[in-house]
Write a structure and sequence with these properties.
This protein is 78% helix and 0% strand. With 118 residues, the chain is mostly helical. Helix 1 runs antiparallel to helix 2. The mean pLDDT is 81.
């Protein structure tokens, strides 16, 4: 399984996109419910008003479904990111262990003299 940082970041982006779609659907259900409830109040119809409550309950259901779906996607993406970070740390640790340190170059034996003033 290849779990790079790019895949984890893509998963986070996918989760946020799914959340935005869920929020749009929730808003749509709520707005339809509000319009139907307004019409029900104008017509003094209890049956139509109860139908508007169904849309309100549907919007609550969409909120719950969006939360469950998005939290699962975010958890999977965060696990991929953590795994990629762990692998990166292991690789960098192995690179540091195999590096040889070269001593700094020695300064020249004699320093140049200052020019004489006349």
């Amino acid at each position: 399984m290849n779990a790079g940082k790019g895949e984890g970041a893509f998963g986070v982006m996918l989760a946020f996109c799914a959340a935005m779609v869920g929020a749009a659907r929730t808003e749509l259900c709520a707005e339809i419910g509000i319009v139907i409830a307004s019409v029900a109040l104008l017509l003094s119809s209890r049956k139509i008003w109860l139908f508007a409550l169904v849309f309100g309950a549907a919007s609550a259901g969409v909120i719950l479904r969006t939360y469950m779906h998005t939290s699962g996607l975010l958890e999977a993406a965060n696990q991929k990111i953590a795994l990629a970070q762990q692998r990166t740390d292991e690789i960098e640790g192995a690179d540091e262990a195999t590096e040889t340190v070269t001593p700094p170059a020695a300064p020249p034996a004699s320093a140049p003299s200052a020019p004489e003033s006349r």
